[in-house]
Amino acid sequence: MVLTLDEVKKDFSQGEEVLNVLKGVDLNVSEGETIAILGKSGSGKSTLLSLLCGIDDATSGNISYRSNSLKNLNSEEITDLRAKHIGVVFQQFHLLEHLNAYENVLLPLEVNGNSDKSERVDYFLEKVGMSHRKSHFPNQLSGGEKQRIAIARALVTHPGVLLADEPSGSLDENTGGEVMDLIFDIVRDERMSLVLVTHDKDLAKRCEKIYHLENGVLSLED
Ligand SMILES: Nc1ncnc2c1ncn2[C@@H]1O[C@H](COP(=O)(O)OP(=O)(O)OP(=O)(O)O)[C@@H](O)[C@H]1O
Ligand SMILES: [Mg+2]
Which GO terms describe its molecular function (predicted)? Predict the structure, then answer.
């Protein structure tokens, strides 16, 4: 298994109140498998993704990447795991504003000490159709272009799994469709697993399995 979640719970404290967002999530993602997670706004999809990539801790339960429990890793080791093996396309892109498009995509390779593999930057910029915008800074790019750069950045390290949060959410239908075609093509070509978070049922159908996140638990659609 690439990712295993066992009884994962996540609470947020808001003053006196405790918000139980995830109430016992179980999930297995196998090698090369594509899964979609459908759920209403506020159901906890982005929260779940932030636990999967280790940027936030579960309140209880266990998350493992290829049998390594995230609990047994310190924060440096988690950063290293994410940098090497987990590609993330965030809902809000999170590009670094002071780096241009090329530098944003190169950054994960630099973090991994793999700056010598910079031909991968050109390869993925080409794949996402952004070779002509290499030296543009994020504030000089359209929303769809930023999304493409975020996708190239997530893929450049050849992660075992790609986590994508509404990757076509802010795009028009045509551009969104193209971005999704691109993600599915690359995931298949590079034999990655995909966890796609969305509230778009048609998009979810392109994945091998569909899960629904509702009332804090995941259930598999049959
Ligand atoms: N850091 C936080 N502190 C307190 N509450 C939070 C925090 N992060 C998220 N929440 C709450 O947890 C719930 C789930 O949020 P989340 O962002 O995971 O939803 P989502 O399913 O991704 O929604 P959307 O489809 O709108 O992106 C929301 O009610 C939100 O207000
Ligand atoms: Mg969200």
Answer: ATP binding
Q: What domains does the chain contain, in order, with CATH numbers?
A: 32-43+75-220 (3.40.50.300)
Identify the pLDDT of residue 10: 98
**Does the CA dihedral 54-58-60-63 come out positive or negative?**
negative
Pairing assessment for the beta strands 161-165 and 193-198 based on DSSP bridges:
parallel
pLDDT at 96: 96
Other C-beta atoms closer than 10 Å to the C-beta of 155 total 25
d(CA 175, CA 146): 12
Q: How far apart are CA 182 and CA 190, in angstroms?
A: 12
Ligand lying closest to the C-alpha of residue 21:
1
Residue with token string 């969104």: 176
pLDDT under 70: residue ranges of the chain: 170
| Residues surrounding ion ligand 2 at CB below 5 Å | 45-46, 91
Measured by CA distance, the residue closest to atom 9 of ligand 1 is 47
> What one-letter code names the amino acid at 155?
L
Helix, strand and coil percent figures for the chain, each rounded to 5: 40, 30, 35
d(C-alpha 216, C-alpha 18), whole Å: 14
Side chain identity at residue 197, one-letter code: V
Cβ-contact 157, 185 below 8 angstroms: no
